[in-house]
Amino acid sequence: MLALVPAVGLIVALAALLPSWLAPSSTSGGDRPPAAPGAGRGEAEAAPAAADDAAADDAAASRRRVAPTAAAKAPATGPYLYKGFGLDTCEAPAVSSLRAWNSTRYRAIGVYFAGHGRACPKQHNLSPQWFQGAKAAGWRVLPVYLGGQAPCVKNKHKRRYAIGADPFKEGTTEARVAVNRAQAYGIMPRSPIYLDIEAYDLKNQACKEKTLSFVRSWSREVRRFGYIAGFYSSANSGVRHLASARAKGYTDLPSVMWFARWRVPPSAYGEKWLPQTAWHPNRRIHQYAGHVLETHGGRKLRIDRNWVDAPVAVIR
After folding, report:
1. Rounded CA gap, 161 and 153, in Å?
2. Per residue in 118-163, pLDDT tens?
3. DSSP string over 152-214
4. Contact between residue 240 and residue 202 where contact means Cβ atoms under 8 Å apart
5. Phi/psi class of residue 190: alpha, beta or left (left: φ > 0; alpha: ψ in -120 to 50)?
6. What is the pLDDT of residue 79?
7. For 11, phi and psi rounded to 5 degrees?
8. What φ, ψ does residue 33 adopt, rounded to 5°?
9. In whole angstroms, what is the distance from residue 44 CA to residue 66 CA?
10. Fewer CB near the terminus (10 Å): N or C of the chain?
11. Entry pTM
12. Residue of 129, 127, 264, 144 lying closest to 195 (CA atoms)
């Protein structure tokens, strides 16, 4: 099994970890995944001008050419794992704030690095130097992409980003945006990219089918370029839906599950909708508290708290 080396939290380089994380899954017939059978977290709406700017930037990114996996310079060590406490924030804090928080138990940070659906689209601190600085300060990064959302998303502010008439095409296009942005920031292949799909109505059959098609095409395309497809959603919504799809034999599902269930103790493997054998081992993150204000080293941040047992970014 894995030789896990203790550190501040835990991080390990893996030489040959679960090939299915990186290799595209097969589908039954044709290039598109078949339509799915019946089978978070709320954020404030971004200012329209900022959201429109982000959408324009992402559209431009989707048109840029992305080097396929074979041509990408991937690190020979494979994915990195981290096991320990982490946090995520709407806007990435300055590296100086990360250093100020080095005395805390948190050693991983979720960052909304791309996607037109982000509540904080500008991300004023993010740059390749930010990722290098976070790495130098001893932090592990969980890259989060928030783009198209389920048409029946419960957060009314996210409905403007609803997946359209061709979810397969949209998922593929947005995956290329995510890969382009990751490469621009120095996030290397064999890193995870976590797709954020906010809570949606599981009673809406058509919405579920469209959302699952989008998630599957996004996951397959991200893998095609050598990245690990991750997924974030509410435990009672998207996570439950994908667990049901897995039980029914659907392919092209995300490899890592980041589930939100608040006001319960942190536990990566205690979620009722995730069977013990699913997304195991080292494939889960539990977001167990949200919108918490904490101050350390004189720096105050509003964070969501997470327990992590999953891959983190390989930073160039």
Report:
1. 9
2. 999 999 999 999 999 999 999 999 999 999 999 999 999 999 999 9
3. TBSSGGGGGGB--S-HHHHHHHHHHHHHHHHHHHTB-TT-EEEEE---B-TT-HHHHHHHHHH
4. yes
5. left
6. 78
7. -140, 135
8. -65, 145
9. 32
10. N
11. 0.81
12. 144
Say how far apart CA 39 and CA 20 lie, in whole Å: 23
Q: What is the CA radius of gyration of the chain?
A: 18
Alpha-carbon distance of 116 to 132, in angstroms, equals 24
Cα dihedral 61/62/64/67 (nearest 10) = 110
Write phi, then psi, for 180 (nearest 5 degrees): -60, -45
122 neighbors 50 (Cβ within 8 angstroms): yes
- 3-state DSSP call for residue 257? strand
Quote the distance between the C-alpha of residue 85 and its chain's center.
17
Q: What mean pLDDT do residues 280-305 have?
A: 97
Here the tokens at position 101 are 């928080």
User: Distances from the Cα of 77 to the Cαs of 15, 58, 114, 185, 314, in angstroms?
Assistant: 5, 30, 26, 20, 10
> What are the backbone angles phi and psi of residue 92, rounded to the nearest 5°?
-60, 130
Choose among 145, 309, 151, 168: nearest CA to 232. 145
Q: What are the φ and ψ backbone dihedral angles of 156, each rounded to 5 degrees?
A: -60, -25
3-state DSSP assignment of residue 288:
strand
Helix count and strand count (H, E) for the chain: 6, 10
Closest-CA residue to 245 (of 42, 38, 84):
38
d(CA 112, CA 129): 16
Name the β-bridge partners of 284.
Answer: 257, 309
| Residue matched to tokens 């370029």 | 225
End-to-end CA distance of the chain: 27
Half-sphere exposure of 50 (CA within 13 A, CB side): 12
